[in-house]
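For consistency, the fold was encoded as C-alpha cells, as this record shows:
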Amino acid sequence: MNHLKTFTLLAALTALFVGLGYLLGGPTGMLVALVLAGGMNLFSYWNADRIVLKMYRAQPVDEQHPNAVVRVYVADVVQMARNAGLPRPVIAIIPNDQPNAFATGRNPENAAVCATTGLLDMLSREEIRGVMAHELAHVKNRDTLTMTVTATVAGAIAALANFAMFFGGGDDRERPGGLIGTLALMILAPMAAGLVQMAISRGREYEADRVGAGIAGDPEALASALQKIDGHARRIVNPTAERNPASGQLFIINPLAGRGADNLFSTHPATGNRVKALMALGTTMGPAARRPDFAAAAPRATTTSVPTTPVSRSGPWG
C-alpha cells in the first residue's frame, strides 16, 4: 500500500509539473518538463535525503559525542530502533532554536533521524524519546521516501511557478493560456502541489503517532511533546524552512506554524486532534506499558546525566 501511495503521489506531482511545462512552452515545453520530471524523480530517489540533510546543516552524532545530553539522545534512538526491528539509522542534530525533528531516507537501511538543538534543549527525556519514536515510525512505515521525494518535487513546482512570472510580459498569444494562464498557474500550481502533499501527509502523521507511541511505550509523553513543539514553533522562526517551505512536511510539527496563511494547506493534522488520539491510546495501553526502559538505553557513564524533568532552556548549547 505504501509503494502504491508513493507511485500515485509521484504520478500526480509529475503530471502537474508536465502540465506547467505545457502552459509555459506548449508541446516543446511539455516534453522538456517530462524529461526533467523523470530525471528529477530518479535523482530524488537516490539523493534527496542527502540534499535535505545538507540544507538543514544536519550534523551526525554518536555515542562518543562530548555532550552528555546528545549521548543519551543517541543511546535512546539506538535502543528504540533495535526494539522496533530497524537497522541503526544515521542520527543527527540540526543547529536550530525551533524544537522540531524529522526523518528522511529512501528505505530503513538508508534512513536518518534528526532533532534540532532546540528540541534537545526544551523537552524532557521522555518527550524526546516520544518524538524520535515517531520519526522511527516513519522509517518503519517506509514513509521517508514519500516525504523526501514529495518535498523535492513540490519545491520544484513552486520554483517553476515563480519562474513563470518572467514570461508574463510581451506577446503571450503563442503560449497556451496566455498571460491569464501564466498568472493562474503561478497561483494555482503551488496550491495544487500543497493539496497533494496534504492529502497524503495527514493520515501518515496519525499513523506515525500511533506506531511511535508503541515504540516509545509512552503516548502521553509524545502528546506533551507535540503541544510544546507546536507552541514554540509559533514563536521561533525556522529560517531554512521559510526559504524551502516544501520541506516543512518532513517535520513532526509544521515549522511554518507561525505563518497563518500556511495553516490553510498544512500537511500536518491539528495538534489538538493528535493529542486527543494519543491520550486515548494511552488509556488503552495502560500505565504498565508506558514505562520507558531507560536502563537499557542509556550509557552507564551518562545514565544520571540527564534528568527526566524538562531540561533548562539554556540546555546543552550554552
The mean pLDDT is 78. The radius of gyration is 21 Å. The first strand starts at residue 59 and ends at 60. The CA atoms of residues 240 and 258 lie 14 Å apart.
